[in-house]
């Protein structure tokens, strides 16, 4: 059940002109960043970007990107606005990608920096603890 609203409208790209320009030139990169963040780092930006780029000549990349939008909406309880996920990506792919990127940023994620998990330092061996 959707109980949260989008922080940025479909055509309100947030405050990132850079993301907007990148998305218009290389939408596969923006998609890769979004997918990595939505998947909590279980998939890489590079692999997502490559799959998206391979689908671009066939003009079916929206089928891939709409699945990430669905995951993002489920993660944050967002409504399917202004219409269904696949419809939004089919008709407004760059706008949808920019909106999703901005939504992640506004919710504390940093998709441009990659997925950032907790500390990655190795645990201290038991013999060294005091």
TrEMBL record:
Signal peptide residues are: 1-18
Keywords for this entry?
A: Signal
**Which PANTHER family does this one have?**
DUF614 FAMILY PROTEIN-RELATED (PTHR15907)
Q: Which NCBIfam families match?
A: A_thal_Cys_rich (TIGR01571)
> How is this protein named in the record?
Cell number regulator 10
UniProt organism field: Platanthera zijinensis
